[in-house]
Structures are given as structure tokens and as C-alpha cells.
Amino acid sequence: MFRNAIRRALLVLTLAVPNLAHGQITATLTFETNGVAGVTQDGVDVFKGVPYAAPPVGALRWRAPQPATPWPGIRVADHYGDICVQPLGPGSTGGTETPEAMSEDCLTLNIFKPNDAVGPLPVVVWIHGGGFTRGAASVPTYDGAAFARGGVVFVSINYRIGQLGVFAHPALTAENADGGRLGNYGLMDQIAALQWVSRNIAVFGGDPNNVTIFGESAGGLSVNALMVSPQARGLFHRAVSQSGYGRGSFHRMTVDSLDGRRAAETEGQELAAAVGVTGNDLAALRAVPAATIVAQPRPPGHLYFILDGTVLTDDMWAVFRANKEAPVPLMIGSNSHEFSGISWDSPRPDLHAFVSDDAYGALAQPYGGKDMLDHHLISDFLFTQQARALARMHSNNGHPTSLYLFSVVGDAAAAEGKGARHGAEIAYVFDTLNAGGPPDVAAADQAVAETMNATWRAFAATGDPNGTGLPPWPDYADGQIMEFTLRGQSVHPDVRNDRLDALSAVLDGKS
Question: What is the value of pTM for the model shown?
């Protein structure tokens, strides 16, 4: 109660600095590190590039995120912060920044809130994808205005990626500067951002006791990891995993895992040697240019997280099986054809580690032939079957669970057997179909976008995806799946169950 009183006392109502290029600054909010000036656009107050942790540079590289340093006066928050260091190329600049606007000083977040918010409003925290090697919160599709206009406080975050985000080395273990928090630096950033939200979001009209995390692809896997992290427990109250993945074990620090993932410290020593640092010279390793670090290829079979015993104490699948995941409402799902062009003969060590030649041959029958098997196998292996398995475990553990299938494609594409590709649902969830593209979105697509955004907002508000004017969506305990199509939404038994049952028999025992 005392802390909430302080938050209310820190609310400053106006700042007379009008008409910047990005919009009109109309209000300042003051919180733990001083004030930020927000820009109002179309009824939404937007605060961009707000630091939630200290820059992880110099001696703070490969350290748990440290508290942000207070700044003097008012910070004008009218532009996104630098994106985290990543290889240059398509998707590497966050969509709105130049390649030069990229640095290790990237631990910032962005807040979109209704201009007239008085709170407490539901809060959603978006975790971007990009395979833990690329991406940023500043991608235009991730604009949070539709959420804010619908009465939700939206937050998006940057977090360390590549080998700056996941890295282990014997010298770091010996240093042990953060009480056993080692290796999972990007995941620690996500937790630090959620802690920032817990401490400060009330100033922005948000309810710190009603926080939903959601993410896609690597962001979906991050959501799953946060579901099993003791360090994240209590920091969120609902979760949405869109096309998350992650089979098998996490890496161990010093030994190979039972399913063959190599020791994280071994991989770290190899990376250090590749950039010219041998032994345990942490100062030399931290002095290597960040671009040189992230340019090193990930080792085969790398699964992005490390079982460090503090941030992650057990494998994701083991935690769900033991009914020890976060006991929160979960919405989870995938797209109808995430990836194509990856057949059994493609070089996929992760797939071949789980599916033998004999098992592959036996799967042809439930899939309706080898062509259909090759058409769907990689998508089902990475996303579809896992989403269903996690939904079943979470539901069987007694927690509200909603499973969806995104199948929005045109009639011609559907007739050719094509489906919704990886990431296709994002612009619909955000209701940003025009972001960075032509303004001629079809009415049917726009209707789906409005429904999906409203559904995600309803889930954030109550933990239930049902709401006024929305299609009824029963809990997955009833065995029903919600399918979003261009012709509307429908709930039905999953028509893919036979093939997914056959794939489950092959995969789940190894997952």
C-alpha cells in the first residue's frame, strides 16, 4: 500500500514541450529513475526507449542485468532505443532503425497506454522473436497502439541475443558475480523487464497484478521458459505462446546432456578461442567487439538456454510433466504451415535426432503419404505437436488452457494446400496489417485482425479469451481448438489429431 501511494504521488500531469516531429508531448510520468515525456498520437500515449536496466557493456557484459542509473531531469521518450547487437541483414535493424542504431546499450522498453488511462488496466508484455539472433521491439508490426486503444497497457522489450544473450565460460562461473545467475543473459533481461513492470507500470495506469506475457517463435519459447523459471514466478499472471518451440533438454554447464546437447562451457571456450582469447582472461574476452562475438555461428544443436540451477532449474518438458510450471492461464498455438521446403532429406540434425528412418517411414500412413508427410513434418515437429503437447499437460495439470490454429490464407492458396506461414499471425494479433505495407488490406483480413486483437485483449484482462462479441472459445479441457480463418473463426476437434498422435508417439518420450 505504501509503495502504491508513492507511485501515485510521483505522477506529474503536464509538460509544456509541444509539437515534436514524432507527435505532441503532453504528459510526463515520473518513476524510480526520474521522468519520461510521452508522445501522444491518436489518443495513445507512447513512451519509447525507456531503460529498464544498466547498459550491459564493459565489465557488465555477460552479467545479470543491473539496475538502470537514474537520469537527470526529463527524458524525452519519443524514439526507440538502440537494437541489440546482431548480424546485419534482413530483419536486423528492427524495421525502423539504421544499422548504426545498434549497440550493447539496448536494454530498453516501450510503453503504449490510453491517453485517458486512470488504471488499473491490464498489462501485456511483448517478447519479440528472431531465433535469438535477430529482431527488436521496434519492428513496425509490433506497434502497440491497437492494444492501448482497446484499454490495455502495452509494453515491448529488447533483450540480449546471440552469444551476448546466451553464453557460458569457466571464467564466468568462477567469477560468479551474480549469485549463480549464469548463462541465460537474455532470459534474465526479460525477467528484469518484468520486474521493472511490477515496480513501475502503475504509474502508467497499468495493473502490476494483471500482467500477460506473450511472444512469437523465439519469443514463444521465451514465454515457455519463463513459465518454468523460478526467478519469473509471480511476475506475470497469464501467458501466450505463439509458435514457440524447443525440443529436448536445455544445455548443462559442464557436462553434455543425456540427449547429446554439448556442455555450455565447452561451447563458450570454443567461441572464445574463435575470437582469439584463450585461457580465462575475462577482460580480454569482454574487450572483443560485440559484432565479432555475434558473428560467430551457433554450434549445431544449440537450444538457446542453459540449466544454470538458478534461473532455470530443470528442463521445460520435465517441469510441465511434474505440474511445476507457472499455474496461470495459458493460450498457445501455431500456424497451419509454419515452414515449407524442408524435406526429410534436408540437413536438419535436430529433426533426425528425434525421428529415425524407420519412424519416418511409419509416419507416412497417418500423414496420408510421403508427400504430405514432407509437407507438414518440420512444422509439426517444431511447432504444432509441441503446442498441443504443452496445452494437454497444462490442462491436465488443472490450469485454464486455450489452444489455437491460425489458418488465414486466401482461397487460392488454400486450394493449393498452402497454409499460414511462420509469423503470419503477428500482424493480425497486433491489428497492424498496414504496417510497412500497402494500405489496401481486404475487409476479411481486417475483420480477422480486429477479432484476434480483441481476443488477446480479453485474455489479458481476465485469463479467458471469451468476451462480448467474440466467438465462444471453450477451455482446451474439452478437447476443442479455435481455428482462425479468412472466413471467420470456429471451434472444433483438431482434424490433425491422428497424425499428431502418431508423431507424439515418436517425439514425446525424447522431449
Answer: 0.93
